[in-house]
Amino acid sequence: MAATFHHGPEVVEHKDGVTVVRDVKSAVTYVNGTAPIHDVHDTAQKRAGYINKRMIVRSHLEASAAFGPHKAGYTIPAALDAIFDQGDGGTIIVNNVFDPDTHKDGAAPDPSKVTTQEINGTITPAGQATGFSGAYECYNKFGYFPKLLIAPGYSPAATVRAEMDVVAHRLNALAIADLPLGLTKQQAVEARGATGIANTSSARTILTYPHVVIEDTAGAAETRLDPLSSRLAGVIIATDLEQGWHHSSSNREIKGIVDLEVPINFYPSDYQNDTNFLNEAGIVTAMRSFATGFRTFGNRSAAFPSSSHVENFIHARRILDMTHEAIIFFLMNYVDRLGTRQNVEAAEEGVNAYLRSKVGEGVFYGASFRFDRTKNTPEQIADGRFFYRLECHPISVMERITVDSYVDTKFIADALSLAA
């Protein structure tokens, strides 16, 4: 480009090289279900803004004002309570599919009229996204996608769990799905079998069992059963915010529960623990031991035991997801720029600077990003295609700690000063 004529001093500001890779938001949850919106919004016109419209909630106060307090039969207020019980709930995107003017038993609003098809959702002929389909719109609307998907009360249905997994794959998220109420521990494991309702090997699905017992604030009974999935989501969020998204959410205290649907026995060195029985089938559970409180227990997604890849660890799958997405957003700065050596190497160094910081934070054992000079050919470069290679390994968790114990008579000789 020809220089513009100028007579006198000038400052030309250059911004090349200041773009950095930024972490994507991890503590974002998509809660899909039903809420008694008629209790807080008195007209159909007001209620329309809370039916299949993605709403952000960041506090108990916002949750109650938008979706009402917990009420028997409705899933969203209970799920939000469970998340906030664990601490700061991060960013929660709520999608209510319940319409009190449509889902009725006579004249009375009835959440049982909501179908699993409505929970799964679709894109209507008018272009409105409903149910889980609404999760696809979140980036364009809010600037980020949800990273955790839950539908307490509905996720035990195989069709809902399968749809959650589809959405999770498209959004690089994790779907947390409960196994049904009323299962014994053996039946929970059998659900993973060839004819079971949870026969999946997806690294993006976390299966939880059993349900938990909590205080019943809406009924005549003192306690009620509640899905573990929403409590686990809250623990993951709290761990993200307190320690970082590369930390495991296993063996962390769950707040707000008083018992489990079925007892889960645990003793640290016992191979016959119920926790081992469930974890080795790819099921995340809850347990308590002496003076521990109730705790999450399980590091593996439903990919285990079918897959031996590191991604079957929940924290490792999340590390890879957050890293890939951060790199993708950074590289958008280079899309359609000229393929000069300067731009090729600037992209390379920008990502490597990010990876070095993550190695320093204990996210990876090591990581590198380089322009692949072996895979790239002149023909591909001429066609506008550039290949880079990311190599890394997520930090491991100390899931199994083995002590080899030996009894050695040499210590007798040392203690009693015996002759050799």
From TrEMBL:
Domain of life: Bacteria
InterPro entries: Phage_sheath_subtilisin (IPR035089), Tail_sheath_C (IPR020287), Tail_sheath_structural (IPR052042)
Residue intervals of the Tail sheath protein subtilisin-like domain: 142-301
Domain Tail sheath protein C-terminal: 312-407
Gene3D superfamilies: 3.40.50.11780
Family: Belongs to the myoviridae tail sheath protein family.
Name of the protein in its database record: Uncharacterized protein
Highest classification ranks of the organism: Bacteria, Pseudomonadati, Pseudomonadota, Alphaproteobacteria, Hyphomicrobiales
